[in-house]
Amino acid sequence: MARQNVERREILRIVTIAAGVAAFPGFSKWTFACGHPAEAFAQVKPASYTPVFFNATEYALVELLCALIIPSDETPGAREAGVAEFVDLMVSRDAALQPRFRAGLRWLEAHSRKLRGKPFASLAPEQQITTLESLAYKRKFRPGEEPGREFFDLIREYAVMGFYTSEVGLKQLDFPGLQFYAESPACPHKDDPEHRHLPPPRF
Amino acid sequence: MAIRTLCGAGLKVCALNSGQRLDPGKDFRNHRMPWEMKYRGFGDPQTRIDSQPDFVNTEYVPGAWERELVHTTAPGTKWIWPRCSAVGGKTNFWGRSSARFAEIDFRAASLDGHDVDWPVTYEEIAPYYTRVENMIGVASTVQNRPSNPDGSYLPPFNFRCFDRILQAGAEKVGVPYLPDRIAQLTVEHIGHPACHYCGDCTSGCEVGAFFSAPWFLLPSAEASGNLELRTNAVARNVLVDENGKARGVAYIDRATRQEREVFGRVIIVAASCLESTHILLNSRSRPWPAGIANSSGQLGRNLCDHLYGTAASGYLPQLLGQPSFPDNVSDSSIAWMPRWQNLVRPNEEIFVRGYSVYPDGGCSEFPSYFDEIEGFGSSFKREMKRRYPTPVSFTPQIPSLPSDKNYVDLDPAAKDSCGIPKLRIHFRWGDNELAMWQHAKHACDQVMRSSGGVVDYVAEEPESPGYSQHEAGTCRMGNDPKRFVTNRFGQTHDVPNLYVCDASVFVNCTDKPPVLSILAFSLRTSEYIIEQLHRGA
Predict the structure, then answer these.
(1) Is A70 in the same domain as A154?
(2) A47 belongs to a structural domain
């Protein structure tokens, strides 16, 4: 079944039925949201953001790391989605997380200075990527970098949480939920139960 | 169900509800996107409760789940107890899976020699199941399976791509993969609108397209003019007269902390298995020093629960890179792998009885498979996108066998904020359920392999007991007053005007979810009460 945009008539019909069963206070938000998702929920990003938990240097590094993990390439990335702001908010509300983030950022700075004599942010982009690769890929792991690997996993987790709950992130996945479907969505590949003959991957 | 049935018969009912009444248009999720929420739907980390699942801290339905723990655990026991005190309780947010119990469940003890049979037959309960199904609307198909009697069904949910792949794979290894019985409306049903498949379900349905007590049962009770609903009224104990007969309930008004009393001819506890048991245990008086209706000593005993866990999760490579598809139509499963073990002979397996499995997957709201993808950067983003339609996972629903070691009592040393002694829980998984857990992991692995899937995670340990919220058995029914708390109608043996209407009367928890059976047994109990009152009993 093809994805359907909301049919207002159908919604109104449902509202009428619901209203008959019990007092139903209103569907206006939903009809509006489904009809105009972009306008209704456009994110307004402040021009400048003052971090709640991180200091300015730490925050710049968090922003940089999030952008390396989910870069802006042919599609928007962590920067457009405001992921660093989300990370700052979550860490600011989580006492157990705070020392782990702070120590991790400190480890990365010291590691970068030791290895290349410069703070991480001043490295050339390829050097930043190489540094992170040894923390991110099993085949590139190096002894003694366990704390860095643990921190990388942590910040990656929060970057993913922030990005894939943002409007741009879910748009990238083409998140099909929280919409109105007139009937129970059914597999469209009737003659191919095992799905061995699907069209070539789109992505 | 009891409220609706009694009010419908012209009886005056005063209902005490320990929480607030929710307003679907305001208090439910109402299609809000994660980015509309301050903490993106993960909830405020500062208010998270370590001993509770994350949904208790939900941003979408704030205040629906209780934050206070009213239980303690005995040494060696792990138990989580999410409580929803809002009017309608957990039916506001439940999973909607609605299989009937079967004769093979009611007669399990005769078949395999463990524990005791139920005091009822399937034939006796079947008409109540049919009436409840017609009342609430259950979508499924006729399946002709010995452990799963068919009922009166609306058209089933359609299978999605991953369902059909898994179904083909499961068939090859002799495991059934079928539409579950789901109390979610695929078509309009007696005045309730059809589902619109948005996937909001477990944050409450704002149009009432699946069964919940506030959408389906309360309106007619209120329309009768016979219901007085008192909210924020925390029942403390059942009041008795000098002969030990129930005459009312003492409760605490949550707002004022004042103690109040209400009186009636018949008292029904229907607060969910453990809450009801808690109230009865705390109803100690001269005639009932160990808790009301507990002359058998069985009140609080025989606690059963469903063992849940991730038996397998992974992905289906066939779907890599395919366009996204609205798979998330129920916020949980629409298919099931109904019990296929020990059906021909009761002792075919190394365990007795059996379990069912809920498969789920597809495009979800949050791509939690990110953990299985290595790295970062553009290649990571691409892989996240490619994998989006592919994830699948399997959750078995495994019944624990009743055991002397699993029970609840009052903690003599701990009280809750209302001054009520906390409930102390003694519970451990037994060998039978752990053998099923191992069996389920193996079976789900086989289904994945024969479906061409890749398994990338299998949980070592099951979820903590209590996680399924399907506890049962602590006021169980039986014919012998010396061995059971209630009779076959949910009437306590000791106190003829005291009844129990929830899963605590179940003899065990079977491999099926409890709600449909709670409704069927409660309907039967309510009509029995009406009959008794007409007789002047």
Answers:
(1) yes
(2) no
Single out the residue of B275, B274, B282, B279 nearest to residue B301, CA to CA: B274
d(CA B465, CA B468): 8
Q: Which two tokens stand for residue B375?
A: 């790295």
Q: Pseudo-torsion of CA A196, B168, A202, A40, nearest 10°?
A: 170
Task: Quote ipTM for the complex.
Answer: 0.94
Cα→Cα distances B184→A37, B56, B360, B448, B512, Å: 26, 23, 17, 28, 17
Q: What is the pLDDT of residue B332?
A: 86
Partner residue facing A176 (CB), from B38, B196, B363 = B363
Q: What is the mean pLDDT of chain B?
A: 97
Tens-digit pLDDT profile for residues A146-193: 999 999 999 999 999 999 999 999 999 999 999 999 999 999 999 999
Q: What angle do CA B485, B487, B491 make, to 5 degrees?
A: 85
Residues A129 and A37 both lie in one domain: no
Q: Distance between CA atoms of A177 and A194, rounded to whole angstroms?
A: 24
Phi/psi for A87 (5° steps) reads -60, -45
Which amino acid is it at B200? D
Q: Is B323 exposed, middle or buried, given 0-12, 13-18 or 19+ CB atoms closer than 10 A?
A: middle
- pTM exceeds cut of 0.90: yes
pLDDT confidence bin for B536, thresholds 50/70/90 = confident
For residue B118, report the phi and psi dihedrals to the nearest 5 degrees: -75, 155
C-alpha to C-alpha distance for B94 and B292, rounded to whole angstroms: 30
DSSP 8-state secondary structure symbol assigned to residue B492: B
CA distance B170 to B7: 47
Domains and CATH numbers, chain B: 2-534 (3.50.50.60)
Contact (CB, 8 A) for B237 and B275: no
Residue B381 has pLDDT above 70, yes or no: yes
Looking at the complex, does the CB of residue B241 fall below 8 Å from at least one CB of chain A?
no
Quote the percentage of chain B above a pLDDT of 70.
100
Cβ-defined contact of A129 to B377 (cutoff 8 Å)? yes
- By the 10 Å C-beta count (0-12 exposed, 13-18 middle, 19+ buried), B29 is classed as buried
Three-state secondary structure call for residue B90: helix
Residues 2-31 of B with CB under 8 A from A: 23-26, 30-31
Helix H or strand E segment including B26: helix B24-27
Contacts of A175-178 spanning 24+ positions with Cβ under 8 A: A175/B324, A175/B363, A175/B365, A176/A3, A176/B324, A176/B325, A176/B326, A176/B327, A176/B328, A176/B363, A177/B198, A177/B199, A177/B326, A177/B328, A177/B363, A177/B364, A177/B365, A178/B31, A178/B33, A178/B198, A178/B199, A178/B200, A178/B365
**Residue whose entry in the numeric block shows the structure tokens 């909210």:** B231
What are the pLDDT digits (tens) for B176-190?
999 999 999 999 999
Q: Which of A11, A16, A21 is the mutation pick for testing B, counting most B CBs within 10 A?
A: A21
**Beta strands at B178-179 and B71-73: parallel, antiparallel or unpaired:** unpaired
CA B209 to each of CA A200, B184, B221, B462: distance values in angstroms, whole numbers, following the listed order: 37, 6, 19, 32
pLDDT at A75: 97
Position A99 pLDDT exceeds 50 = yes
Residue A175 with chain B: CB contacts under 8 Å: 324, 363, 365
What residue numbers bound the domain in which A131 lies? 56-173
Residue B203: CB atoms within 10 A of its CB come to 23
Closest chain B residue to the Cα of A90, Cα to Cα = B45
Query: How many structural domains does chain A have?
Result: 2
A103 within a domain of the structure (yes/no): yes
Size of interface A-B (CB pairs under 8 A): 219
The distance of B104 to chain A (nearest Cα, Å) reads: 33
My answer on whether A72 and A161 are in the same domain is yes
A20-59 confidence digits (pLDDT tens) = 444 443 333 333 333 334 433 344 455 689 999 999 999 9
